[in-house]
Amino acid sequence: MESNQFIVIYRPLPKAGRIKVYIPFQLKNEREKFKKLNTSFYHPTQKLWSIVHTEENWKLLQAIFNGIFTIEESVKKSIIPSKNLNESSESILIALKQKLILKAFSQSTIKGYCSALRPFLSFFEARELKDLSKEDIESFVYHQISKYKISESAQNTLINAIKAYYEHVLGRERTIYDIQRPKKSLVLPNILSQEEIKAILASVENLKHRTVLMLIYSAGLRIS
């Protein structure tokens, strides 16, 4: 088999939540096997599959891909350096927070936007933010993705934070911030089998607790 037809299993870092796997396009059967595994997930921007990181899953992957895989070391993400902002940048964060509060944004959104905007303010500390072009902003977002490997979720939070500043604080038109975003990941739910559901319910000895779980499952109730 040619080297480019081998499946690559990336050895997860100690605290990694998932095991990343590269499956060449032509290996359809192997890809279908992986898709049937519990907790399997596809990351479109990385073109990688993943599964929850457990010792059992690590051994399982090597077993089902026996003879057609290689193992590569995962590269640890770079940590975005923390830097104290100057007085002007701190005032921008205060102004953004005030605007978002007045517009009834949630506290978690406000906190996320202010945190995401700090590297942006630090990066352009010597420039006037009102004079930045769309290309300047996209270059910064690309810099964060390529250097620090920020996640799809972090990319969107960063872009939304920048948009919020220009739109709500500076009062710019919405069309100015039409910058490239990562494609949204499509998450397919992993459904438990009837046997797995029976095992879960049977493991609960307390009748009241078992009744509650049966009600939740049969009615399709959500956490909220």
From TrEMBL:
Residues 187-224 form the Tyr recombinase domain. The keyword DNA-binding applies. InterPro entries: CB, DNA_brk_join_enz, Integrase_catalytic, Integrase_recombinase_N, Integrase_SAM-like_N. Residues 83-170 form the Core-binding (CB) domain. Keywords: DNA integration, DNA-binding. Gene3D superfamilies: 1.10.150.130. The keyword DNA-binding applies. This is Phage integrase N-terminal SAM-like domain-containing protein. It comes from Algoriphagus pacificus.
